[in-house]
Amino acid sequence: KLTKIPILGDVAIAHNLKNGERAIVVKENSNSMMDETFRSIRTNLQFTLDGPDKKVIQFTSSSSGEGKTFVSSNIAMSLALLGKKVILVGLDIRKPRLANIFDLNDQKRGLTTFLSSNPNDKELLFQQIMPSGVNANLDILPAGIVPPNPAELLSRVNLDNAIAFLKEKYDYIILDTAPVGLVSDTLIIARVADATVYICRADYTPKN
What's the CA gap between 8 and 41, in Å, rounded? Predict the structure, then answer.
């Protein structure tokens, strides 16, 4: 009732995830309630993206703790299970979380290395990408080292080039971005996205 924006779906809160446990609830050859939930959202999302050249989707919310990284990671996994090449990009460069979720040991590799370097160095960008460890079709480009100037870095042409380079190799590019209500980063990133998915959490997100 609060919005005229299309609702892609409802996700139940995964109460049974312990701290430190991987937050990937979508599994291969599984028909759990969570698998079905993300399948439904995936289908609705594909209808929303009008055309095969539309492949960049950013996930954001009002504040932290609403489930952006959880939802974006599982949507990425769900798309990978279709046999699509998917990359999940950590663009919450102030508070990166993807490295923890996917147990990536190298905390220094990441997108910020490319954003602060030569914008045409495609090889450097691809050196920052790591396998997800959960599906061969899913790769991770973590945020990397937290920079002192996030908004300035994201405003550079490097980000536009990074997305263009990734489009050559991947069918879907999923951007896990910062909360839009707290910092300007996500509004800056929006220029490279074909669609934005806004995550709201029951009894948590401010209605206004």
Answer: 5
What percent of the chain is helix, strand and coil (3-state, nearest 5)?
35, 15, 55
Q: Return the structure tokens found at 181.
A: 């209500």
Residue 197 · residue 57 · CB < 8 Å = yes
Give the Cα separation of 10 and 3 in Å (integer): 15
How many of the other CB atoms lie within 10 Å of CB of 94? 15
- The predicted-structure confidence for 153-207, as pLDDT tens digits, reads as follows 999 999 999 999 999 999 999 999 999 977 899 999 999 999 999 999 999 998 8
First to last CA, the chain: 12
For residue 78, report the phi and psi dihedrals to the nearest 5 degrees: -60, -40
pLDDT, tens digit, for every residue of 25-38? Answer: 888 877 888 889 99
133-143: pLDDT as tens digits: 999 999 999 99
